[in-house]
Design brief:
heterodimer; A: little secondary structure; 1 helix; elongated; B: 230 residues; two-stranded antiparallel sheet; 61% helix
């Protein structure tokens, strides 16, 4: 079958092209809404600016195909081979990619709002500026987790997305918006998170050891039981954040705002908290051995049963703070 | 004959003797009818008094006249040749606005204390886009993000040509950065509209580009008239 024959059949009302072999054909700006390309061989084909809303590509082979600028809302790509596909600026809202291979794909500035990206291979994919609002990327029992190793997610919009259990190690998320997203049990090791927005983000039990979060805005974020050992959190705003039982040993929190944050049972040993705003913080049972609290403001903070041995407290403000022994400072 | 009519006669007589009269008339035709005449005879035949009256009628407020002239000047290839003509139009016809009733003009005549002081502006153009990801999301909801990208790239850089070289170049630009640059480049929403739609009609994908122009304009317009917090 060639492109001409397919278009003729489509115009006549046929929608099912299961198993069709159409490698290297050109469907530029063509209206193929609702077409069924299940198991079709579409390697290196071009669908630039095509209208493919509600199209089905389950188990199809589209490796090397060009779908830039195409409208593919609600299309189904379950288990499709999308290796090296060009989706630059495509509209992929509410698409299903479950189990698909999207390695090395170009999804720059694509709109993937509410897309299902569970159990997907996104190694080396370009997702710079992509819209992934409320996307479903979380782990699924019985299936391999979605992996983003080496992916570029700079300035991506991930607000409200669910990425629980996902491997984000080594991913570049500079300037991305992760507000209200759920990222529990996520591996962020080696990821670049400079300048990210994480307002109200849930990162419980995630591994953020050694990550760079400098200058980020993370008000109300939840890092309870997360591992942030050696992470750079300098000059961040995490007012109202939750770090209960989190591990922040050797972390750099210099000049950060942790006003009203919950740091109960948190391991802050050897952490750098100089000039940090810790007003009204809950540090009950916190472990601050050899922490640097020089110039920090602990006004009205709760330090009940906190361990402060060896902590440096030159010029630390303690006005109204409750000390480890229960005594309240004047 | 009333004072206004006498003043129009005087202005018409003074303009008629101006050595730049052809450019002045061509510019007035352009701003009143959105029509650029390259026919010298046609420009000569156009009645000057009628043009002055049309200008007054089309732009009852002097500020609007000035703004429109500035905007249309940017659409002319030989802008510098028409700058003097633009100044002459504002300096001469501008005199007539002082004689219009207060309700029809917002110009302030320092000679007259009877004209009410205009109210302070209640809106202003923002110096930045406050929520760039929301703006990008709004633009990309119902159109292909790539059409928006091509259009804005063409407004800011050069008309996009769907060749391999331009596709690669486009990958080096981010949509949100392009949107921000477009907003900062345009002084008014009227300028934004003109630049978007003028560019769209010359692109290969004209119909899609026009649709994108509408969406981009609608999304950015509120930031040009942002309410000033009291």
């Amino acid at each position: 079958m060639n492109a001409e024959q397919l278009l003729k059949s489509y115009t006549a009302g046929q929608r099912d092209f299961t198993g069709a072999s159409l490698t290297g054909v050109n469907f530029y700006s063509t209206d193929l809404i609702g077409i069924n390309f299940t198991k079709a061989d579409l390697k290196r084909s071009s669908f630039v600016f095509a209208y493919l809303n509600k199209a089905t590509f389950n188990n199809a082979n589209l490796s090397g195909a060009k779908l830039s600028g195409a409208i593919l809302n609600q299309a189904n790509f379950t288990s499709a081979n999308l290796n090296s596909v060009d989706f630059h600026g495509a509209s992929l809202q509410r698409c299903v990619f479950f189990g698909a291979n999207l390695s090395l794909t170009n999804l720059m500035d694509a709109n993937l709002s509410e897309a299902d990206l569970r159990s997907v291979n996104l190694r080396g994919a370009i997702l710079r500026g992509a819209i992934l609002r409320s996307a479903l990327i979380r782990e699924e029992r019985g299936y391999p987790n979605t992996t983003f190793q080496g992916a570029d997610l700079r300035r991506a919009d991930l607000r409200g997305a669910n990425l629980s259990g996902v491997d984000l190690s080594g991913v570049d998320l500079t300037g991305a918006d992760l507000s209200d997203a759920t990222l529990s049990r996520v591996d962020f090791r080696g990821a670049n998170l400079g300048g990210v927005l994480m307002i109200g983000t849930v990162c419980t039990e995630s591994n953020l050891t050694g990550t760079n979060l400098a200058g980020s805005y993370m008000r109300g974020a939840n890092f309870s039981r997360a591992d942030l050992s050696g992470a750079n959190l300098s000059e961040t705003d995490i007012a109202g954040g939750n770090f209960s039982k989190a591990k922040l040993t050797n972390a750099n929190l210099s000049r950060s705002v942790l006003y009203q944050a919950i740091l109960a049972g948190c391991d802050l040993s050897r952490a750098n908290l100089d000039t940090c705003n810790l007003q009204q913080c809950n540090l009950v049972d916190a472990y601050l051995v050899r922490a640097n609290l020089d110039g920090a403001d602990l006004s009205d903070a709760l330090l009940t049963r906190a361990e402060l041995s060896g902590a440096s407290m030159i010029g630390t403000t303690m006005h109204g703070a409750t000390l480890p022994d229960g005594k309240v400072m004047a | 004959m009333d004072t206004q009519s006498q003043l129009i006669d005087e202005i018409v007589a003074s303009l008629a003797e101006d050595e730049n009269i052809l450019r002045i008339k061509r510019l007035m035709l352009f701003i009143c009818h959105d029509y650029w005449s390259n026919d010298v005879e046609e420009v000569k035949r156009t009645d000057l008094r009628q043009l002055v009256e049309e200008t007054l009628h089309t732009f009852p407020v002097l500020g609007d006249l000035k703004q429109t002239i500035n905007l249309y000047l940017k659409r002319i290839n030989k802008q510098s040749d028409y700058l003097l003509a633009a100044d002459t139009v504002i300096d001469t016809i501008g005199l007539l606005y002082a004689d219009l009733p207060p309700s029809a003009t917002s110009s302030i005549d320092p000679q007259s204390s009877t004209i009410a002081e205009p109210l302070p502006p209640t809106t202003q153009k923002l110096g930045y886009i406050p929520n760039p990801f929301d703006v990008r999301g709004d633009v990309c909801r119902n159109i292909s993000p790539l059409h928006a990208k091509i259009l804005i790239f063409s407004v800011l850089e050069y008309p996009f040509d769907p060749t391999e070289r331009d596709w690669s170049t486009l990958c080096t630009y981010d949509l949100d950065t392009l949107l921000e640059r477009l907003f900062l480049t345009c002084d008014t929403s009227a300028e934004l509209k003109v630049r978007l739609f003028d560019t769209a009609q010359n692109l290969t994908f004209a119909e899609d580009a026009r649709r994108a122009a509408g969406v981009v304009f609608q999304t950015l317009e509120p930031f040009f008239e942002w309410p000033i917090a009291s």
